[in-house]
Write a structure and sequence with these properties.
Length: 232
């Protein structure tokens, strides 16, 4: 599942790497109204490989909205989120999918902070922010994740079919985490590599998304708690 917005510089290389994986039975790319050549590039790749499916938004709606669109079209037993910017390496798919393929997990998170694998050194305060958001999320969900904000989340398709998602932007991460925890799904975490990029290279997340993430943690954890207890 590949959400994409203005990633013409990396989307072809990303999809080549995804398609080279033996686990890539279906690659759904949701172009979120890109203003560059991203959709055109994906369209050409789709013409040459029947595994690639391009869906397009008429207006820019955000990563969460793109994922909702893609999840509705997924047909394979397992779904993994892959950003088009190649900060995450498809070579890690065997590690991420192993707990699912082994029947031990329903959801797997790929942690950037639980690994001896390559990790580009970038922003100190981003790391602090990610760890803080993960801590707050864990406090509300009673999970013990090390990287709630990771892109690499893999699911049994039944999990996604059972969860109603609402967040349009990066609030998807704390929302799905709260709802997975509330559903009692089996969650595993594995270490992955990470090749982060700078804002000059196209990084899109901002401090405003961090504020929204805190709001989403509280909101969706509270809603999930009321659902579990039957409170109104």
């Amino acid at each position: 599942m590949v959400p994409c917005f203005n990633e013409e510089a990396s989307v072809e290389q990303c999809l080549d790497a995804v398609l080279s994986s033996p686990f890539a039975g279906e690659v759904i790319v949701v172009d979120d109204c890109s203003t560059d050549r991203s959709a055109e590039i994906v369209e050409k790749l789709a013409a040459g490989d029947e595994r690639v499916h391009l869906l397009r938004h008429d207006v820019n709606r955000g990563k969460g909205a793109a994922l909702r669109t893609g999840f509705r079209s997924a047909t394979r037993p397992f779904v993994i989120v892959q950003d088009a910017d190649l900060e995450y390496d498809p070579a890690d798919y065997p590690v991420v999918l192993e707990p699912l393929l082994g029947g031990r997990a329903d959801v797997v998170y790929g942690s950037r902070f639980q690994s001896g694998r390559p990790h580009r050194v970038l922003y100190f305060w981003h790391t602090v922010g990610n760890r803080f958001l993960t801590l707050v999320s864990n406090a509300f969900t009673d999970l013990n994740l090390t990287d709630m904000e990771t892109c690499y989340k893999a699911f049994r398709r039944e999990v996604l079919e059972a969860i109603e998602l609402r967040e349009d932007r990066f609030g998807f991460e704390p929302e799905i985490t709260a709802k997975v925890a509330a559903g009692g799904w089996r969650v595993y975490e594995v270490g992955i590599s990470y090749y982060g990029r700078t804002y000059a290279e196209g990084k899109k997340i901002s401090w405003k998304d961090g504020v929204r993430a805190v709001y989403c943690i509280v909101k969706y954890s509270a809603l999930a708690s009321r659902h579990r207890t039957g409170a109104r």
